[in-house]
TrEMBL record:
A Pfam family recorded for this sequence: PEX11
One record GO biological process: peroxisome fission
MF GO annotations: identical protein binding
Record membrane topology: Multi-pass membrane protein
Main location as per UniProt: membrane
Protein name: Uncharacterized protein
Keywords from the UniProt entry: Membrane, Peroxisome, Peroxisome biogenesis, Transmembrane, Transmembrane helix
Organism: Malus domestica
InterPro entries, per the entry: PEX11
Length: 283
């Protein structure tokens, strides 16, 4: 609109008869300049408005993300294991951050065992092979047990539960449960990736190579396979983290290795909790 008005002003300037001895109408020139400046100003303001809208949208997504208790827990987990990596098991500020963050995270997990308990008694998806069903239920049972026992550890750390020796034993048992659930998750993800791989090969036979990436079903299966692969990496690394926390191989899985792997899996968890991008509407 602004460009059309500027163009029309230029045409008018040439068509307007000259006065006061000027070869070109001065007032028409001023009109052209003012319209051009106003047109550029409108473009700049519109651009800034779009940037402001984009910033507000990103801020809204950040608020939505941080409203999740699970997201805040994983951010704290990244801080915890990052501090463990920096401290390398030696006393100091980093180790204090590690311990205090570990204690704070236990508050986020109060009554969280109910989630996996619900998953344990919920029916599985139809067509799931029996071995994967059993592994999935074992994972739910072990993770629910870990989260329940972890609450007793929290009671001991806060001074409510006085029997420290028993609390330490319960804490160790809970870590074994978490390691077992991570192993079960690893096996489940391997099985699911194998199933999806078979489905993808079947679709590839039905579709031509040039057309498979345009097929919605194929792309959905491929996306699910990538998500499962990331979950497999996370579960496998978490198993090693559990080995480090239990000190089952202290020479190989040191405190620094445990911290590095724990920090990595925390970042993966943070990524997995990101809101799904909005699908663009068809024109």
């Amino acid at each position: 609109m602004g460009k059309e008005r500027t163009k029309q002003a230029i045409i008018t300037a040439y068509q307007t008869p000259t006065d006061q001895g000027f070869p070109f109408p001065v007032f028409a020139v001023f009109e052209v300049i003012s319209l051009a400046l106003s047109s550029n100003l409108i473009v700049i303001l519109h651009s800034r408005n779009q940037k402001g809208h984009s910033f507000r949208a990103e801020l809204a997504l950040a608020v939505l993300y941080l409203n999740k208790a699970e997201a805040r827990d994983k951010i704290c987990r990244a801080i915890q294991y990052g501090s463990k990596f920096l401290s390398n098991g030696e006393p100091g500020t980093a180790q204090n951050v590690d311990k205090s963050t570990s204690l704070a995270r236990k508050v986020f997990r109060l009554f969280k065992f109910i989630n996996d308990l619900h998953g344990l008694i919920s029916p599985t998806a139809p067509g799931t092979p029996l071995p994967l069903v059993l592994l999935g239920k074992s994972k739910n049972a072990l993770l629910s047990t870990f989260l329940f026992l972890d609450q007793i550890v929290w009671l001991s750390r806060t001074g409510i539960y006085k029997n420290k020796e028993r609390a330490d034993l319960i804490g160790r048992i809970s870590l074994f449960c978490w390691m077992g659930s991570s192993i079960c998750t690893t096996l489940v993800e391997i099985g699911e990736i194998g199933r999806i791989s078979g489905q993808l090969k079947k679709l590839e036979k039905d579709l031509k190579n040039s057309e498979k990436y345009h097929n919605e079903q194929y792309r959905a299966k491929l996306k699910k396979s990538n998500e499962r692969s990331l979950a497999l990496v996370k579960a496998a690394l978490d198993t090693v983290v559990a080995v480090g926390l239990l000190q089952l191989a202290p020479k190989k899985v040191t405190s620094r290795v445990t911290g590095a792997l724990g920090f990595t899996t925390s970042l993966i968890s943070c990524y997995q909790l990101l809101p799904a991008p909005a699908k663009s509407k068809a024109a």
